[in-house]
Every structure is written in structure tokens, then in C-alpha cells.
Amino acid sequence: EDKRPKEVISFMQGRLTAAYAVLNDHLDGREWIIGDQITNADLSCCGYLYYPEPFGFDRKDWPNIDAWLSRLSETPGWKAPYDLMPGSPADRA
Question: What range(s) does the GST C-terminal domain occupy (predicted)?
Fold first, then answer.
């Protein structure tokens, strides 16, 4: 923790918040990022949002992203990234 530059972390968290706002606004009134069904765009963008721990992401703060992630997780055959990795999340922390 002592070696982590707090100014850089703060700056990057600000950039992440701006990116969340863009995605949340884009999803307003839409079920998917592009078109009327799940596409590679959805799968490419969602991955990091299933790893909220290091980024301070809380789905309840972003209602359109929250609904979109719920739709993704309800897709037949869906597995959360942690479920696809060996071990437990605590082992990877």
C-alpha cells in the first residue's frame, strides 16, 4: 500500500468514473450496447465490471450499468469471470 502513488490512483479513479458515466448514459433506454441483442461489444466491455474490488465500482451507483450486467448474467450459459478461474477470489487478492 505504501508504494502505491495515491495521486495516480485518485486520477485513475476519476477517469474510471467518467468512463462509467459514459457507459451508463449510453445504456439509458437500451438493453445492449449495440443493437437489440448481446454482441461482442457487451462481452468486451463487461469483463472489468465484474472485478469491482480494486476499482471502487458499486453497481447501485450506476442503474443502467446495473440492469445491463443483470441481463448479461441472465444470458444462457453465462459464467461470471471469477467462476471461470481456478481457486477462490481470496487466493488472487
Answer: 1-93
